[in-house]
């Protein structure tokens, strides 16, 4: 069974304590994990069902409170714990080409007029700075609450990646503007 990024998040949450899927969604959003994994309630429920079918998690109880729908609480199984640590080890130990869309667009950017490319790159750099500012605020908040760094190390990684991309874009913009990098005319 493939352990997707969302499945990793689910297994990690259940490794902390038993939860029902709605609580998982809320916890992931509260922790801003939606910045690194696509968190959609429907996808999460489907992921939990797949993990249960693969015997990596199991339902432990079902409750109903008032008019709310039934909520099934899940726990991680020993096989789920093994799958989690195995997948984390694979992902941490070896780089994987994830085929992000930006390099494809960048590789074909010569099909867009120079002035428009400069506007688009500048806009992207500005948006990256906004993301960096948001991540820095999250890091400051975690530090002020004395959350151990091991729990928010991803934020530091995301900040470093965004900062590197922003700086690279600034250099690229300078090269295009100065005509050090010649741009085809369309």
From TrEMBL:
Residues 10-85 form the Transcription regulator PadR N-terminal domain. Signal peptide: none annotated. Gene3D superfamilies: Winged helix-like DNA-binding domain superfamily/Winged helix DNA-binding domain. Residues 118-145 form a coiled coil. Keywords: Coiled coil. InterPro entries: Tscrpt_reg_PadR_N, WH-like_DNA-bd_sf, WH_DNA-bd_sf. The keyword Coiled coil applies. It holds the Pfam family PadR. The keyword Coiled coil applies. PANTHER family: TRANSCRIPTIONAL REGULATOR YQJI. This is PadR family transcriptional regulator.
């Amino acid at each position: 069974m493939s352990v997707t990024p969302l499945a990793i998040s689910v297994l990690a949450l259940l490794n902390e304590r038993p939860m029902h899927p709605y609580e998982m969604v809320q916890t992931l959003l509260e922790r801003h994990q939606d910045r690194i994994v696509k968190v959609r309630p429907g996808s999460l429920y489907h992921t939990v069902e797949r993990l249960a079918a693969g015997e990596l998690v199991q339902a432990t109880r079902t409750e109903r409170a008032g008019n709310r729908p039934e909520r099934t609480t899940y726990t991680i199984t020993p096989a789920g714990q093994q799958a989690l640590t195995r997948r984390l080890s694979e992902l941490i130990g070896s780089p994987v080409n994830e085929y992000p869309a930006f390099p494809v667009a960048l590789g074909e950017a010569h099909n867009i007029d120079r002035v428009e490319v400069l506007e688009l790159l500048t806009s992207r750099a500005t948006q990256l700075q906004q993301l960096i500012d948001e991540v820095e605020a999250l890091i400051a908040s975690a530090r002020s609450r004395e959350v151990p760094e091991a729990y928010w190390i991803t934020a530091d990684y995301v900040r470093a990646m965004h900062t590197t991309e922003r700086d690279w874009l600034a250099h690229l913009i300078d090269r295009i503007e100065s005509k050090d990098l010649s741009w085809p005319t369309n």
